[in-house]
Specification:
The complex is a heterotrimer of chains A (981), B (417) and C (94). Chain A has 981 residues and is an alpha+beta fold. Among the domains of chain A are: 114 residues, Ubiquitin-like (UB roll) (Roll), CATH 3.10.20; 201 residues, FAD/NAD(P)-binding domain; 73 residues, Arc Repressor Mutant, subunit A (Orthogonal Bundle), CATH 1.10.10; 90 residues, Alpha-Beta Plaits (2-Layer Sandwich), CATH 3.30.70; 95 residues, Beta Barrel (Elongation Factor Tu (Ef-tu), domain 3), CATH 2.40.30. Helix content of chain A is 22%, strand content 30%. Chain A is built from 23 helices and 52 strands. In chain A, the strands form 13 sheets. In chain A, strands 8, 9, 12, 13, 14, 15 and 28 form a seven-stranded mixed β-sheet that branches. In chain A, strand 8, helix 5 and strand 9 form a beta-alpha-beta unit. The longest helix of chain A is centred in the middle third of the chain and has 18 residues. The radius of gyration of chain A is 38 Å and the shape is elongated. The mean pLDDT of chain A is 96. The termini of chain B are far apart. Chain B has two domains: 191 residues, FAD/NAD(P)-binding domain, CATH 3.50.50.60; 176 residues, D-Amino Acid Oxidase, Chain A, domain 2. Helix content of chain B is 28%, strand content 24%. Chain B has eleven helices and 18 strands. In chain B, strand 10 and strand 11 form a beta hairpin. Chain B has 417 residues and is of the alpha/beta class. The radius of gyration of chain C is 15 Å and the shape is globular. Chain C has 94 residues and is mainly β. Helices cover 10% and strands 35% of the residues of chain C. The chains are: A alpha+beta (981), B alpha/beta (417), C mainly beta (94). At the A-B interface, strand 6, helix 3, helix 4, helix 11 and helix 12 of A face helix 1, helix 5, helix 7, helix 9 and strand 16 of B. Chain B: Its cofactor is FAD; FMN. Chain B: Keywords: Cytoplasm, FAD, Flavoprotein, FMN, Nucleotide-binding, Oxidoreductase. Chain B: Its EC number is 1.5.3.24. Chain B: It catalyses: sarcosine + (6S)-5,6,7,8-tetrahydrofolate + O2 = (6R)-5,10-methylene-5,6,7,8-tetrahydrofolate + glycine + H2O2; sarcosine + O2 + H2O = formaldehyde + glycine + H2O2. Chain B: InterPro entries: FAD-dep_OxRdtase, FAD/NAD-bd_sf, Rhodanese-like_dom, SoxB.
Chain lengths: 981, 417, 94
């Protein structure tokens, strides 16, 4: 219908079938969805956000505010809010329009358009306040239902995304004339060049430059040659379909490469690829966007940008209409008019400037034209123009606008470069750099082809030279054009003869912001452009103001009586165009979201049917249920087994740090609350580490292997934190100390053998170390071998039973575990998990850092004052303990709690109050059923708790409290007799 | 003040809205004021409003170096909740939540306080313990907060993925039903309009460059980019830049300023019915009235005043969001920006007198200042007007860092074992 | 993501590093001699400057060493990088 034979870069011999809103249509290979729709005579593609006005395709690429569609590929591959102008056509593409009910042609919410006079900018701030409860219940849900654009997918996205990092000397953004010549020049120097362009084909404006020649070649041909040359160079990475969306500190740019969406079917590889490119120099050749004109009723389907219409003609062989009126305030409108006319389209050009350029044109030119309005509901049918004192209505099927060009300074602005107002191009252009970057060609306000080519050569040469590469001298390509871009341009609302407060002259199409909305905002005192933006929402739609920013700026300036440059401009924020969440998240999903840490005994536990819990990145076996056991049954059995015979526990996740050097003991002295000088070789001690503010950071047993060698353990979650703290003090406070710190967490598997039979089980396996009761008492450490593997054995207990922790190199962990298991099983040994470990240690009143402590607990609070070296003048955190709050009598202290009903289990985190209620005195930190004690047990932090031992308190619960007696935290074997078996 | 209502909207609509007047005057600085508030965000404008309305102090100016609401007020993800752990914190924040409920009517400006509920996800046993402790502590203080199983959480927020087959399964959640969101810009504008109506001068593009003090050390005025302004009291409410302003009076505070990023998706039809937060995997999301998913990230690791951060921070946030909501992977990030948050060592704010007579400070809100806006503003006004803190903000002094009375909400959520 | 010049390893991306806050705050040699004000200031008070900031970094996933940077917190531009124990290079005043 509207396809012109033999024109454009589309393949006229390759028809593609597609559907839009269920209607089967045909396009051509090389089409975008927009060009294919236009070729079928379809302009109506969307409804606006607020008024639900019918809207057509406005632009030709990333600036499109109206034609947003949802593309559905099946299998969870539903993508809302895609501009039809950027959707590449493929066979059987399925697209739907959005935000209309029930159809584009008949949308019931278009009632909003008729109520428009009562729905000005910011109307919602002035109403919906009465009655109060209606906001959440009535108004807001209704507003939300009408707002929003497309529908979010409901199924998980099956596609893959990947991340790549790249380094280069020169990154060129944009492969138009400026970018290509910059890339060519820089690349010839031999430096690494990355050049990206967001369109399917590199070439930018050259692809649609019908009447230009460069060095005697047609513009397209020259671009093809340049691209071929770049593609052949090993130092060049050429990335089409790749949008540079963000400029981050220190010349890091984010690029998003689209790999799958233009192809039919399921993508073979990743759908998109995110590039993080660190460049020594960045050349921004991002071009310019044509500006629309703000006149009454400028939003009907069929009204679009003139250069977009020209591009549809030259790239896709599509006539956007048969009888078009071009309204222009810039010479470039004539170029569009000439090219459309040459293609057989009937053209009338209305120039808003007083004296239209006098030149002979083959089409009618109306100078000094004022646009009074347009007609047509679902498609523009006429435009009313007043000129030379009379009003004329011209019937047409398309109206094209050209208000001049706005350089795409998004990335330059994101880089924090400064911008200057350029009165000639009526726009801001880059003026100063904060990073190693420059803008060239149209992005710098230099719109003519020859300037772009010259800029590119110079910038490419300079960038290579700045990176230390001598550019080979390449002559600047010589360009000639039939129709230059020329001059002119206007920003702001065009004058017309109607009451500006009554007409709808759109500034931001998608968000339905009109010139009168901006006038209202300034009338209401919103003078800052940021306020105008936020109050009217201009520039906040999915196109992020690409078309609207300068026009709203100019209207604001005019209304507030200031020059445009005094108003400033709104901050440009990444991304330049929207970026898929999946591309940003990349491969990070499930086990790749965070690495999973597993111990060497993990597979064994899996085979035994263990239930795991996440502790930091670790998977820890929580309990080992048998047959139909639930957690409580399994834990009861495990706990009884440990105290009855023996238990086997995988403690490999414990942090382990080897502290070596002549000053190792001194170092520990300064760091931990304990005294370490007199710890004998072969002995262990329970150490407590504070933060400098006096609160408990971590705890763990530290053994002395030699005068200058300590083996320190930390909590599972605290390992990295403790090592970082140690390194910090060692490197920055006490660099004079001769100490070396090594994380050995992954080196050693730790197998805890606990229970009365522990020694009996281990004795046959251990060699080179006497582990008899006398030779190896509680809190010993020694080295030997076990099952042929190096052994670091610690006699320690976190259960209160006779216990050993067998440290073996991780590669032997599983084998040694199995060996112990084989010997232990006949003696009734059971594997136990973290849950039983928690119960057993709680029976003994042993704390867990992070459960009994929360960063507000001191050693004394936790009942650990005994660990503090009494004669030490200093250790990390000591001075803080002398602060008033740390000495206050009502600090929370660790106690045990006994419910009156032994079967009653307290809830962890429950609050403790006085016998008659009142404010919180503390909380339950740990609570379990103890099979060994045959009752529930609990630990708690209670204000002044130690003095309350024997008193009765209440645990506040919904529907009443639970009475508890305060006890000593040690509930089992208070004398510690079982430690020796 | 022109009254806002459906009727006034209709009436003005019939006259093409030509009759609306500025919501607040573009005031020029007078030579002197009784009190000057430094910082025209929600906290500062609110403080001026309460000073004028509740404490009779009407000769007040708010000095804003840029445009009001342009700092963290206009950059945050607008989450409102009060389910903090410690009594002192939850009463402070709950005071604000109570004021949120009714603020639109009080200001005659729709701030769109939306009680959508805030759902905080627990992903491991430690999370469960911590959140249950919150629930119990809050209930005792009359602050609503309830524990939901994973299935109940899914019923409340259907798009949640509660499959156990993910890296961090959802084991349950704490829900504060009164929590929600509000329209951030409207808070600044609503307070500005109401304060202006009471005579407060709101002076934009007026950067404070110095604090003047007499021989006794008491403040006498401020130096600004628009000239000197005399005043007997100065309230500093300049989030992000608190250290810079306080330094003008020779004070060094326990603050560091970090970039905090946020981002929004393109608008979609309603899909997330509440605020969803996950501390364990560092993400939170809600949906604005307009349909955008509003997503918050963590702070960058270094101090900065640039109001921007690294791409990797936003990436990590979206990794987390897509892990909880794998169906959102095809949605697209529309806008990503940064603010500056000043962070105290215990992650709790300071609303207090300072060692300098006549100088008061409201700072250190870290990532959570917006939710406290009305409460903090009112308590700050109280502190300025009476030269003494209100009982609710009495614990939130500068001296707590000297004496050790920290209110450590961050440490209280410490990772375990 | 900043590009950080480790004085031992050269330029490396920010994700290899951990941040250590303001530099040149030495732990008092005899903390018990400090009164509460001075100790509190050591623990918590920070310059938090808007401008050239002397700060500690650690090349955690590299050489693991601490070092100092001077970074302009208004722009994130890195002005100098120097080793622990060496004096801060002269930085031009604001």
């Amino acid at each position: 219908m509207f396809r012109l034979p033999k024109r454009g870069l589309v393949d006229h011999g390759a028809p593609l079938s597609f559907s839009f809103d269920g209607r089967r249509l045909t396009g051509l290979a090389g089409d975008t969805l927009a060009s294919a729709l236009l070729a079928n005579g379809v302009h109506l593609t969307g409804r606006s956000f607020k008024y639900h006005r019918p809207r057509g395709i406005l632009g030709a690429w990333a600036d499109e505010p109206n034609a947003l569609v949802t593309v559905i590929r099946g299998g969870g591959r539903s993508t809302p809010n895609l501009p039809a102008t950027q959707v590449e056509l493929f066979e059987n593409l399925v697209a739907f329009s959005q935000n209309r009910e029930p159809s584009l042609e008949r949308d019931r919410w278009s009632i909003n358009d008729r109520l428009g006079r009562f729905l000005p900018a910011g109307f919602y701030y002035k109403t919906f306040m009465w009655p109060k409860s209606f906001w959440s219940r009535v108004y807001e849900p209704r507003i939300r239902a009408v707002a929003g654009l497309g529908v979010a997918p409901e199924q998980a996205d099956p596609d893959r995304y990947e991340h790549r990092y790249a380094h280069c000397e020169v990154l060129v953004v944009g492969a138009g004339p400026a970018g290509l010549s910059a890339a060519l020049t820089a690349a010839e120097s031999g430096c690494r060049v990355v050049v990206c362009d967001d369109r399917p084909l590199p070439g930018g404006s050259l692809l649609s430059a019908a009447s230009a020649t460069i060095d005697g070649l047609g513009a397209r041909e020259w671009a093809d040659t340049a691209v071929a040359r770049l593609s052949s160079m090993t130092n060049v990475t050429l990335l089409p379909r790749t949008t540079a969306f963000g400029y981050y500190p220190h010349n890091l740019l984010g690029l998003c490469e689209r790999l799958g969406d233009h192809l039919p079917g399921e993508p073979a590889g990743p759908r998109e690829r995110l590039w993080s490119v660190r460049a020594a120099r960045v050349i921004l050749a991002t071009g310019a966007l044509e500006r629309p004109l703000v006149f009454p009723d400028n939003d009907r389907p069929g009204i679009m940008l003139a250069d977009a219409a020209r591009q549809y003609l030259q790239l896709h062989g599509v006539a956007v209409g048969r009888r078009v009126v071009i309204v222009t305030a810039h010479d470039a409108g004539y170029r569009s008019a000439h090219e459309l006319h040459a293609a057989g389209i009937q053209v009338v050009l209305a120039d808003t400037r007083p004296a239209a350029i006098a030149r002979s044109t083959p089409f009618r030119v109306i100078p000094d034209a004022r646009i009074e309005g347009t007609r047509g509901t679902l498609r523009v049918s006429a435009i009313t123009i007043s000129h030379t004192g009379r009003s004329e209505r011209i019937d047409c099927d398309a109206v094209l606008m050209c208000g001049g060009f706005t350089p795409s300074i998004h990335l330059a602005s994101q880089s924090r470069g400064t911008m200057a107002w350029d009165a000639e191009v009526q726009a801001y252009v880059p003026a100063g750099s904060a990073e190693a970057e420059c803008s060239i060609g149209a992005a710098a306000g230099r719109l003519e082809l020859a300037d772009a080519l010259a800029d590119g050569c110079r910038a490419g040469r300079d960038a290579a030279a700045a990176a230390g590469f001598a550019a080979r001298r390449i002559g600047t390509p010589r360009a000639s054009v039939d129709h230059s871009v020329g001059q002119g341009g206007i920003i702001g609302a065009l004058p017309h003869g109607r009451d500006p407060a009554k007409v709808k002259a759109f500034v931001d199409w998608q968000n339905d912001v009109t010139a009168r909305d901006i006038m209202l905002a300034t009338r209401e005192g919103f003078r800052s452009i940021e306020h105008v933006k936020r109050y009217t929402t201009t520039g906040m739609a999915t196109d992020q103001g690409k078309l609207s920013n300068l026009n709203s700026l100019a209207i604001t300036a005019a209304q507030t009586g200031r020059p445009v440059e005094a108003v400033g401009f709104t901050t440009f924020r990444p991304p330049y165009t929207p970026v898929t969440f999946g591309a940003l998240a990349g491969a990070a999903r499930r086990d790749l979201f965070d690495p999973v840490r597993q111990t060497p005994i993990h597979d064994w536990a899996v085979a035994q049917g263990a239930v795991f819990e996440d502790v930091g990145l670790w998977k820890r076996a929580r309990y080992f249920p048998r047959a139909s056991e639930d957690m409580q049954a399994a834990v009861n059995r495990e706990c009884l087994a440990v105290r009855g015979s023996a238990g086997l526990f995988d403690a490999s996740t414990l942090g382990k740090i080897e502290i070596v050097g002549a000053d190792a003991a001194t170092f520990l002295n300064r760091l931990y609350v304990n005294a370490w000088d007199r710890l004998a070789i072969g002995r262990c001690r329970y150490g407590v580490l504070l933060r400098e503010d006096g609160f408990i950071l971590d705890d763990g047993v530290i053994g002395r292997l030699a005068a200058d060698r300590f083996h320190a353990t930390t909590t599972t979650g605290g390992a990295a934190r403790v090592l970082a703290t140690m390194e910090d003090y060692l490197q920055t406070e006490w660099p004079d100390l001769d100490v070396w710190l090594t994380s050995v967490t992954e080196q050693w598997s730790v197998i805890a053998v606990q229970g009365p039979h522990a020694r009996e089980i281990l004795t046959p396996l251990v060699q080179g170390l006497d582990i008899s009761a006398d030779a190896f008492p509680h809190m010993s450490i020694g080295e030997g071998t076990i099952c042929g593997a190096a052994l670091r054995l610690m006699r320690v207990s976190f259960t209160g039973e006779l216990g050993f922790e067998v440290n073996v190199p991780s590669s032997h962990g599983h084998a040694v575990w199995e060996a112990i298991w084989r010997i232990g099983q006949p003696l009734g040994m059971t594997a136990y998990g973290t849950e039983a470990m928690h119960v057993l240690r709680a029976e003994k009143g042993y704390i867990i850092v992070g459960q009994e402590t929360d960063g507000t607990v001191t050693a004394d609070d936790a009942g650990l004052a005994w660990a503090i070296g009494k004669t030490k003048r200093d250790f990390v955190g000591k001075r803080s303990l002398a602060r008033p709050a740390m000495k206050a009598p009502d600090r929370k202290q660790l106690v045990g709690l006994r419910t009156l009903d032994p079967a009653k289990l307290l809830e962890e985190g429950a609050q403790i109050v006085g016998p008659d209620g009142g404010p919180s005195l503390g909380h339950v930190t740990s609570s379990y059923y103890s099979a060994n004690l045959g009752r529930s047990i609990a630990l708690a932090l209670v204000r002044g708790g130690r003095a309350l031992e024997g008193h009765r308190l209440r645990v506040a619960m919904p529907g009443g409290g639970i009475e508890v007696d305060v006890t000593n935290p040690v509930l089992f074997d208070p004398k510690g007799k079982r430690l020796d078996g | 003040m022109q009254h806002f209502s459906i009727l006034s909207l209709l009436r003005h609509g019939l006259r093409d809205h030509k009759g609306w007047r500025p919501q607040w005057r573009a005031a020029a600085p007078k030579p002197g004021y009784d009190a000057v508030i430094v910082g025209g965000g929600g906290h500062g404008l609110g403080a001026a409003f309460y000073l004028a309305r509740d404490y009779g102090l009407r000769n007040v100016a708010v000095l804003e170096k840029g445009w009001i609401g342009g700092g963290n007020t206009g950059r945050n993800t607008t989450i409102i909740r009060s389910n903090y752990l410690f009594d002192k914190s939850s009463s402070l924040y709950d005071h604000a939540v109570k004021l949120w409920d009714g603020l639109s009517q009080e200001l005659n400006y729709n701030v769109m306080y939306s009680r959508r509920g805030v759902l905080m996800l627990a992903h491991n046993v430690h999370d469960v313990q911590v959140f249950k402790r919150h629930v119990h502590a809050n209930r005792l203080n009359g602050v609503d907060n309830e524990w939901l199983t994973a299935e109940q959480a899914k019923a409340f927020c259907p798009p949640l993925n509660i499959s156990p087959d993910v890296r961090y399964p959802i084991l349950g959640a704490a829900l504060q039903r009164r929590g929600g969101t509000a329209r951030h810009d409207a808070v600044a504008w609503g307070y500005a309009r109401a304060a202006d109506a009471l005579g407060v001068d709101i002076i934009e593009n007026c950067e404070v460059t110095g604090i003047d003090r007499d021989i006794s050390g008491k403040v006498t005025g401020v130096q600004t980019s628009r000239g000197p302004i005399a005043c007997g009291k100065i309230g500093v409410s300049a989030a992000g830049n608190s250290s810079v302003v306080m330094n003008m009076a020779g004070l060094r505070l326990p603050l560091e300023s970090f970039p905090l990023q946020a981002l929004v998706s393109e608008p979609v039809k309603p899909v997330v019915p509440c605020v969803v937060m996950s501390n364990t995997i560092h993400a939170y999301v809600s949906q604005s009235d307009k349909g955008e998913l509003v997503i918050g990230a963590g702070t960058d690791i270094y101090t900065s005043y640039t109001q921007r951060g690294g791409l990797h921070i936003a990436q990590h946030t979206l990794e987390a969001i897509c892990e909880i909501f794998p169906q959102f992977r095809r949605l697209r990030m529309l806008r990503n920006w940064g603010g500056i948050v000043d962070v105290t060592p215990d992650r709790s704010p300071i609303i207090a007198r300072t060692p300098v007579p006549g100088l008061y400070v409201n700072c250190g809100w870290g990532t959570g200042g917006f939710k406290a806006t009305p409460g903090a503003a009112q308590l700050f006004a109280h502190t300025i007007a009476t030269d003494a803190p209100h009982a609710l903000n009495a614990p939130f002094t500068i001296e707590r860092f000297r004496d050790g009375y920290l209110i450590d909400e961050a440490a209280a959520a410490a990772v375990a074992h | 993501m900043l590009l950080i010049p480790c004085p031992y390893c050269g330029n490396r991306p920010e994700i290899e590093f951990s941040y250590g806050g303001q530099a040149h705050i030495a732990r008092p040699p005899v903390p018990e001699e400090l009164d509460d004000d001075a100790w509190g200031a050591f623990l918590y008070a920070r310059d938090n400057v808007r401008g050239p900031h002397r700060e500690r970094w650690r090349h955690l996933h590299g050489c693991a060493r601490f070092f100092n940077l001077v970074r302009d917190t208004r722009t994130d531009r890195i002005i100098a990088s120097y080793r622990v124990g060496t004096p801060c290079p002269r930085v031009e005043p604001l």
